[in-house]
């Protein structure tokens, strides 16, 4: 058996029961005899009087914890063909449990007998027997669940602001230990994680100070987690935001005659820059795939319910999944990978998915070198920019977008009368929907009011398209891939924009005068309507600003034919087409 070192979470999951007994093994490593020969030689210590060869395992040996833990795992998992003892072991700390007093006594009796048979000794002064509540591995464990030790959280809350990377790593290490009890921790600590990189200079700013205080606030308000019980119904809830993923593993329990979800563990992670550019349906699929793999030890071989607020995933990850169609390649791969799990996927409303949604949407200030972020209502701060004063442009509040992520004002070329607002779409197209003066509610309302798209909405709801209507027949090629979510028509992962909002959307996206190729790359990933490509080309070709500053090819001067030095050196030939039926004789 190889030397293994189990994690604290794996051991804490074994402590479900009514009673617990904590046993501390005396001396720990010094109770292990060292094998004579090579092992003793490599542990030898040089002294003035010669070599001191230890007979027992010494403290400070790198492999000592793994060797000790492997021996303890063998001790509790089997002895003379007997069943495993219900106990958690981390180095010299052991916690024996049981569902009731009789089972606990049987487990404790068997474990003490195995200690005696192995020649191991316990420190009786540190042992606690038949406790309803114990402190184990920095957490308080009782029959209702697991919660953080107030002493642990108090130490984190009282930590001062780190002055260097070493102290910051210590703080982040403490936060990682309590991560299962704190929703959305990974997103909250993102500005702090950026400072521990060796390539980053340690500069403590307002973003880091805000994240540091928020981490301490979350540590002081941690949640109690329920003991995992495979006999209870298991529910995995996932959600995704443009910046992170969130998941909550929970049990269905009956409280006061009502079925409720009790959390077993929280998990969240930040998205990589490449993952942030995914479409929303892909991010939701990534949240499902990541959450199932993260909680694999709980979900493997057990049936569970998968809750998501993205109805498109019901078809992709459901039992009758259509791996063809409009789903992207990554969604197909994730669906195939999840086939080894036994689950039923269910759609829940976004308002009902508050836990996982909050895990993925906790605010994180993202700095950018392209410009500074300004609130929509702060017109004074915008007009105070020197570039705006020099150009003489007056910004009105109703002209500002609802959520401008990054704003910068520069002259266009050498013209001081026109400005270009770049980074409105920028280099992360997934922010396009957030910064547009449109919302899903507006699109849903205009879709119902639109004459053509209102009929399309009813056709998608009915599942039948009337091809006799010339305007509706334009959707016949993609009708099977259309579906409705929250009153909005989707083509795959793209939003179908009604007629009255198409021109407005293209004008807003073309406000910074990006080219037709860039607009197609951005718009066609998130929006769709028939003829969208030709509309983009038409807008780009008719734009006055683009035509004024468009790059033109340099003029090609006329070159005379080289002078001929001898007859027939250069011959010119022309063609004559005789149309008439007769010719000269």
Secondary-structure topology with pairs:
Elements: H1 8-12, E1 19-24, H2 38-42, E2 45-47, E3 50-52, H3 64-77, E4 87-90, E5 93-98, H4 101-118, E6 128-131, E7 134-136, E8 139-142, E9 145-148, H5 150-157, H6 165-177, H7 185-188, H8 190-195, H9 206-220, E10 234-240, E11 244-255, E12 258-270, H10 273-276, H11 280-294, H12 296-299, E13 304-308, H13 312-317, H14 329-337, E14 343-347, H15 354-361, H16 379-383, H17 386-391, E15 408-412, E16 415-422, H18 432-435, H19 440-449, H20 451-462, E17 482-485, E18 488-491, E19 494-496, H21 499-509, H22 516-526, E20 527-528, H23 532-542, H24 544-548
Parallel strand pairs: 10-13, 13-14, 19-20
Antiparallel strand pairs: 1-5, 1-6, 2-3, 4-5, 7-8, 8-9, 10-11, 11-12, 15-16, 17-18, 18-19
Helix pairs in contact: 5-9, 11-14, 19-20, 22-23
Organism: Meganyctiphanes norvegica
Domain Reverse transcriptase RNase H-like: 229-341
Domain Reverse transcriptase: 18-139
